[in-house]
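Dear Dr. V.,

Thank you for agreeing to look over these. As mentioned in my earlier message, I'm a first-year student in the group and I'm still getting used to reading structure tokens, so any feedback on how I've presented them would be very welcome. I ran two proteins. I've put each sequence directly above its structure. The first is here:
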Amino acid sequence: MSDTAPSQAAELLVIDFVIIGGGISGLTAAIGLARAGQRVTLLEQADDFQETNLAGGCRLAPNMTRLYFRWGLEQQLRDIAYMQQYVCFMRSETGESAAQGEWVHDFKVESGGVFLGMHYADFRRLLYETAVKSGATIRTNAKVASADLDAESPSVTLECGEKIAADVIVGADGTHSVSRSLMLEHDEMRPTGMVLHNAIIPMDKMASEPGLAEFLPKDGLGTAWSWAGHTCGVIGFPTKREEFHLHIYAPESGRENLPTKSPVNMSTSEELIAIMRKEGCESRLTKMVEMATRVMVLPVIDKPELDDWVHDCERYVVIGEAAHPLTTGSLYALSIAAGDGMMLGRLFSYLHRPEQIGSFLAAFAENRHRRVQAIKRAQSTNPASMSMPPGVLQAKTLKGVVESMGDAEAAWYTEEAIRDIFSVDPEEEADDWWVQWGLVEERAARILPGTFEFKILKTHSSR
């Protein structure tokens, strides 16, 4: 696979894209489309990309790091992230190890990438800087108020009244968004009874505490730590900000009135410690939380995935969390959002005629929808799939599995998730679609100009 987009300079049709939203999916799409030679304007409602407010730690799966490495970002990513070369699954009540090892040798990660743990704000800033260098126009303080989805010239209108037209509009504005309101009559939010706490602990404090130093990076390499309980689970990892991040899933326990429209709310270490003691978490976890300088809490909300990601006008497509909200804190959420942007950019490196736009968007939606369904299946049935700790949201169905899971079984479950999820290459899938289907359309159009039209049917019966 080449480390650049396909060379189509002589025949490439260059069109205008407007991307709504400057999160991971929107910024990755901006980079991918700009790399493909398209004109891109990204609209972000916040004022800058330097320090994302209320952001915490995030993890990036190896197949996605491989693609960012391919884009020339390997050194920049290594500068802001710890490679999570090792993994350890433990029981939250005792700290007893259920399975552990090195990703490549023991759990068969063969994608060519590495697991990375980093601060979301650092990752987002890197993507912003890369998008600007790639030629995308990034506008801040540009909140979209509405969209006019005219098939000939779709446009968005900002709160200030400015109207911006484009050939294609990409909705990457998340779960509470203009995009979802355009695609859904009723965007239902269903509380799950769970919340995610994000506790940030200075690593120098942990280094001085007996029993906690083992969780810190060694020789520049980190470990992904996962504690599993019946109704509580924890994931811990270090970042280059010299912080250790704990993602703690637990029942609401007095947080029943947590605002669902506010993505992040502040909490206290005392409140979180009380929850963890109630859940019977091991003492090392409570010690870490006692040291936390910041604790944030997010409601775990179930929101429906869109049935159709492409509007009927065939010039508006929804990607990332706007199209397919995954469980709060899921490893897959970040990777799938990035994969959406990568595939979209790669497909439009093959654009020759305006008539192809609808086919490209439909092909993107069909392919990515299948990927999201595979991830949801893994997330709901695989207790070691790394979407979240075992026991969370699946306490009844997974209780017996968690209790009986030994080293060999945990390794098998993890390898299965890796085979199904972590080896996917969105750019290769775009190339495969072009070879198998896109070229058929293109050749037919050239042989029978004006009389042949080929489209990927947006049917859902085959999913």
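The second protein is here, in the same arrangement:
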Amino acid sequence: MAANIEKENRGHTARLVRNVWLGCFAFVAAFVGAVYLTVQFAGEAANDISTTRELQLVAFDVQRVADNAIAAQQRIVKSDQLFLETKKPLNDAREFDKLIGLKMAREPFSVFSIIDDESNLVYAETQFSVSAPKDRIKYAQRLITTANDLVQDVYQTFDEMKAPSQDGYVVPSHFLYDEKAMTVFAFRYFDGKLHLIVAQPILAMTSYMRIDSEHPFISVAAIPIPNLYFSQTASQIGMQNLYPAALQDAEMGKTSLLLPNGNLPAAALLEWDATSPKLTILQDATPYLIALLLIILISTILVATKFASVLTTLGLVNRRNRFMARHCGLTNLANRSKFDEMIDKAAKNCHAKPFTLLTIDLDKFKPLNDNFGHAAGDMILVEIAKRYQEAVGEFGTVARVGGDEFMVLLKQNFGRNITQQLAQELVDLSSWPISTPYGELSVGCSIGIANAPKDGRTAPDVMRRADEAMYHSKRQGGSRATFAEDRVTHDDAPAEFQSHAS
């Protein structure tokens, strides 16, 4: 028995040691994975931060371009003289060319136009060989049509800001000196090319000069945006291939920023190849990660070796204690605690799977134990347990539940004849002589048999009926088996009882 327990414990300890090594290597793998994921996360975070920074810088530069265009247009339109020209009657000659011509040469507009309070084109100028002089009116009219929504936005903003004055309107001074008040812009395609279009009212810098109509004159100007327009920004930021593109022409895998388009969906975007600090981080961190991995690996191997040694030392004791908590230390059979769990579980399922319980009490064991001592008694118990276990085999479980008390739980109800044959075999095995230092000793046994659910539907009921049948076997002289289903009386008249094994 000790050898079997030792063998079983060695196998259990070997599994524990193997699990320790697997756990340690799993720890190393998890550590490597965690470091890898951390570096990956750091790299992705660095990429995100870099991309966010680039988006912010590009957005700032787009706004800078728009602000410069607004400022350039304001240098032309924010003029008391130009405002007074708009107040002249339609049949009077307006001197727009005189006031705008010289200024246009210093500004980046390809086309500059003015519409009156009824959205009629009253002035148009082009430069950079955009259009022939005879076609400038048509060119400017196409621009006005393209920017009609921007003009309406200016009208709406003006309605919100204007204040009544006599027979007209004035604009409060704090709006007049706000460069972006009543000014709208959009990046959109005009004549097949990307332009920055700006629309803003023509106002006087003197706040008391009133506007006689519902709406002021509006200037609409356009600046062409070639592919290299933002190249200076790209070189300053360190980005590559920063170009504007139509929305439908956007390339996959590039970082992009939608260009403002008034209140309409974006028609164009800026796209570029985002910088990737992640690769640099991985290259710089690799030597340190390899060194750290070697340190962790060596440390883990040392810890695993020491821990495996401790497990080998403690494994046998720990396993033996767990085994002995549910087994008889002498016979290696299941003890009362384990057997109670087994029969409780079997009783709960007895309707679907009937079972048979045999309660066994050794005959003449106490006199032998008293006369020859506990050593002889232990030898008898060990031999009887061995015989019972070999006889029952895989058909059930044998347990030692008391000093000389045994129980057998058969996995199923094999029928009366087969059960009686097994019971008789156990009776015969109990009677065979047992070799001891004190000579050959023999005992017998009395057996009670109960079937579930016929003789009881709960574990206590089945055990009680088996005990009653076993005690009847005792009263009949022992060395026999009694079925609980037979009529059992409390007297000792053997003529009334027909179920003993003989």
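From my reading of the second output: The two ends are 34 Å apart (CA to CA). The chain has three domains: 2-61+278-324, 78-225, 336-496. Does that match how you would interpret it?

Kind regards,
E.
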